[in-house]
Amino acid sequence: MFKFFSRVKTVVGSELNAMLDKAEDPVKMLDQFMREMESDIREVESAVAKQIANEKMLKRKHDDAQALVDKRQAQAEKAIEAGNEDLARRALQDKKTQDQQATSLKESWERAKTDADQLRTKLDEMKKEYQDMKLKKDSLKARAESAKTRTKMNRTMSSIGNDDSKRGFERMEEKVMQFEAEADTSEDLSAASKSLDDEFDNLENDGVDDELAALKKKMGKE
Question: What CA–CA distance (Å, rounded) separates 67 from 69?
Fold first, then answer.
């Protein structure tokens, strides 16, 4: 019934370390521990409810027996007043029987009440411990998620500057330089492929320009 407390120690003790060492998911495991604690609390709540019901039942029986004791006492006194000693004796005999039963029921009720009080106290302790563990669980979950995020970021950042990445970058740089060299070469080839007629056309164009300059000079239109 009180497996709860051993599980509490498990969460905060060596089992948690063992869990992490085995690479188990702390978030899932903490949730599982909390579900087990909740189950234990429900189990104890049920036991407390039954014990309280038993206590009330014994208290009611004791009160009924005590009421009958008081009734038989009153009846015996009434019979004496009426001069009926036989009836008084019978009432006192039954009173004695009921008194013994009331005494026994009182002892049983007191034991039941003590047990119920202890169970209620234990239940209160369990619920308080559960709330403390719930707060701690939320903190541990946040820490676990933060650690996962940091690990992922560190792995990503370390992969950015590794040798493979550098070699790949350098390889792409060489390709760009190769494309530029090919473009320059194609321009040189294009210039070298001009025909002889193209070169004479250029010369003729140059002569026209000279002639046009001389004409403008002659006409004073420089």
Answer: 5
